């Protein structure tokens, strides 16, 4: 059967809501104070932030790369989730703040604000485009070089193989996100794997709550920007170096990330530059 139109799994999907919306809507100061502690006056984010990452397991990278939560539309196209944008009053000014709770964590563009990405149009709430992932023209041999990522192209995900790792550990693609007609491109590693589906079905805990909300039908997405010196890693199943066959490999200084070891991490995000 075609999996173009993903079946409903019956399990709970989204744990989602706008963080602090009730407080922010009120006249009290508590919500405003909380917001001030995590955003600068322009609403451009920055500061300490917790996020879910694919763990760095070897090499010099200081922390994991951030996941991008995703969803699949009725026609099987896969798109990243950008946090809900709210207009809030802050220090007498109306500013746009993008943040929402997904899978038990506060998700915001801060997750991606490192390595210069904080200046990319795609992380800005005002980005003029949609949220669909589009195939990169420098991806895997099998994949299209343009167009929107679709479930149909991943029907063989449980048996797909290349020169690295065993068949069935996941089918990868390289994509871009929120990068149409922009100066800079947000590079995305897509993986579809039954390992993710199995984790959700058989394990429990906060990481599983996150995966349940941030992945769908075995699809996961990662910002493919190495936290070491900012290279775009060659990716999942692209090297045998140091046992990286079934992992994400960064060719610049041999950092390795495990896409199936999801960890909650924190770092100090840069603020987005003022327009
Ligand atoms: S290991 Fe240095 S940039 Fe990736």
UniProtKB/TrEMBL annotation:
Q: Which UniProt keywords apply?
A: 2Fe-2S, Disulfide bond, Iron, Iron-sulfur, Metal-binding
| Top-rank taxon | Archaea
Q: Which residues form the Rieske domain?
A: 188-275
GO molecular function list:
2 iron, 2 sulfur cluster binding; metal ion binding
The keyword Metal-binding appears for this protein:
yes
Q: Where are the transmembrane segments?
A: none
Name of protein = Rieske Fe-S protein
């Amino acid at each position: 059967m075609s999996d173009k139109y993903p079946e409903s799994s019956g399990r709970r999907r989204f744990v989602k809501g706008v963080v602090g919306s009730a407080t922010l809507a009120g006249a009290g100061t508590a919500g405003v104070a909380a917001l001030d502690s995590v955003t600068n006056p322009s609403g451009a984010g920055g500061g300490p932030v917790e996020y879910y990452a694919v763990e760095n397991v070897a090499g010099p990278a200081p922390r994991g790369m951030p996941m991008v939560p995703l969803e699949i539309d009725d026609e099987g196209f896969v798109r990243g989730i950008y946090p809900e944008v709210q207009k809030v009053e802050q220090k007498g000014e109306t500013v746009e703040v993008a943040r929402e709770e997904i899978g038990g964590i506060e998700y915001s563009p801060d997750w991606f604000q490192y390595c210069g990405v904080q200046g990319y149009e795609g992380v800005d709430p005002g980005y003029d485009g949609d949220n669909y992932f589009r195939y990169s023209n420098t991806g895997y041999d099998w994949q299209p070089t343009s167009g929107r990522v679709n479930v149909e192209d991943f029907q063989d995900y449980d048996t797909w193989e290349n020169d690295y790792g065993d068949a069935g550990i996941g089918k990868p693609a390289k994509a871009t996100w929120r990068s149409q007609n922009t100066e800079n491109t947000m590079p995305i590693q897509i993986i579809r794997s039954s390992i993710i589906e199995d984790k959700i079905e058989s394990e429990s805990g906060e990481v599983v709550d996150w995966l349940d909300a941030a992945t769908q039908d075995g699809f996961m997405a990662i910002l493919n920007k190495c936290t070491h010196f900012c290279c775009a890693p060659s990716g999942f199943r692209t090297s045998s170096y140091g046992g990286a066959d079934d992992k994400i490999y960064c060719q610049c200084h041999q950092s390795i990330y495990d896409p199936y070891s999801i960890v909650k991490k924190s770092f100090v995000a840069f603020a987005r530059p003022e327009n």
